[in-house]
Specification:
Shape: elongated
Mean pLDDT: 84
Radius of gyration: 31 Å
Helix content: 55-70%
Strand order of the largest sheet: 1-2-3
Largest sheet: 3 strands, antiparallel
Amino acid sequence: MAQTEKKGGLLRKSSASKKPLKEKVVLMYDEIFMTEDPSKCNPRFWEELFLMKVNLEYLEGKLEALDGEELMKIKDNINCLFQHCIQALSEEHPIRVVNALQTLCALIRGVHQKNKSTSGFDIINMLVGFDKAELCMKNLMESLDSLLCAEGSESLKSLCLKLLLCLVTVTDNISQNTILEYVMINSIFEAILQILSSPLSRREHGYDAVVLLALLVNYRKYESVNPYIVKLSIVDDEATLNGMGLVIAQALSEYNRQYKDKEEEHQSGFFSALTNMVGSMFIADADEKISVQTNEAILLALYEAVHLNRNFITVLAQSHPEMGLMTTPTSPIPTTPVTPLGTTPPSSDVISSAELPLDADVQTSNLLITFLKYSSIVMQDTKDEHRLHSGKLCLIILTCIAEDQYANAFLHDDNMNFRVNLHRMPMRHRKKAADKNLPCRPLVCAVLDLMVEFIVTHMMKEFPMDLYVRCIQIVHKLLCYQKKCRVRLHYTWRELWSALINLLKFLMSNETVLLAKHNIFTLALMVVNLFNMFITYGDTFLPTPSSYDELYYEIIRMHQNFDNLYSMVLRLSTNAGQWKEPASKVTHALVNIRAIINHFNPKIESYAAVNHISQLSEDQVLEVVRSNYDTLTLKLQDGLDQYERYSEQHKEAAFFKELVRSISINVRKNLAFNTLSQELLLKEFSTIS
């Protein structure tokens, strides 16, 4: 018997002597694309259609092949198909429900593809008809809500979420997708929360649910009252919030693991051999090849949770075993095929402390640590646009955390010490730190380490000014908390001071190039005011009196940089150019730093002359400093411990609009035919007669 091949909805024998035969479902689709009502000749047409295996590719292709005029001619049949799909969702026969869900996906995508340039209202009319839109969409949303909340098939729930993601992301700019008005009116918020609060549902569908929620929250968020924003902001159920945190932690942890695997593979490969031969001259270039697709969708979900819901802050510190050191649960693996990270869920859930007892010998972790590790990777390379957006969003999330009183309380808690292994950019002039030597410290130390690492590693021609400003603001907000609550943090403050001084040096060395693009005086003023914060209030939050002495030592040791900065801002503030005002602000801010330098330098020179020492040691300089504090006069500067709180709508709206557009395109692109494959779905129902 000749073998049968299938292609594009056609069945044909390998012998070329006969005409190709079409699948029955394809013949039925062709009838829908006629102007006549297909049920006229066959009253059981719609009933039979949903028993046929869907041919997504053919149906979408057929819709895309029609021009606008041709599509309008079959509008009644399209409306009829859409309405019968919704009716089929209420049927008890799961095969019909599966086929209806997939047909809806194809219809929504096909009609939208065809009508990219037209308004959303035309698309609503084309799919469902204006007169029936409200009732049909209400029935659709209620059916999806019921399927998501029912205890039935996990595969059906997965397909419902895929349909909702298809519906939300069908336009690049989700705020222009007017179909979402019906998703706002007929909320599925509670269904999403139910998925996140149940360990089994979360393991299967948590990723899609979290991404869907993040996108829905961003629908017309600045123009109207979005019910998903309102509801997310007041969620206080611990199981639900922890569930959301676990989904986010798993996705970020998966990214970290993939990066680490690539890094190890990279180091043991060709480049490792090459760099061993010729030294480290190629190390930076080699590292650039380590690339794992960033996950802006899950990062957006984390941002919305942190920004909107005060109760979610507690989830950041919720302990769970370090991933990679824990055993994964024996559970069904999601039916979603594996596609690039950032588009589909990881294969298993993180287990909360309630689900798996903590082992005293296993390093515990939490969402904040996982997030800090993720940030340390994506913030390494800001030349790539996606990483730049990811890096910016990481800093925005850290800004929200640094402003929160409760978050600061656990960040600075001496009883919550962790060993946080941040990724450090390979640089020629420093050795790679050994992971085993990392001390256990309060979490704020890891945040400060991350900020110092960024400051040190991004002084380059394509200067990321915006990220530097955010970075310095985060440090400032943490210092404000320490000053206010008199928290004496045992941290290597010298590393921060050194990084800040080197940043000032970089700004001065590249004055001409940078001033052509940026107002560098805003950043310089912020850096100088950080030093003013230490000078004015350091005795209330630095760990020991000797730490305060070391601050003065660093200022005196690096006085040339401050002198040069003063000369530069004085020159520009005395000219009538555009930089006069911002430069003069820096001039005034330097008053105490200059007073320290001008007070102690003559004393040090005198000490050296009296004791016939050509070069003083650090201890000798510190001795001079300690014995001459009494005669030092400093000016009290106002507002050093004040800051402007983060505001999304006024300053970040354009960034989030572009970010959500990028996420929408990415999610849609990865809802490919194979992710809607029927094979696994139908296996589940194979016993049904």
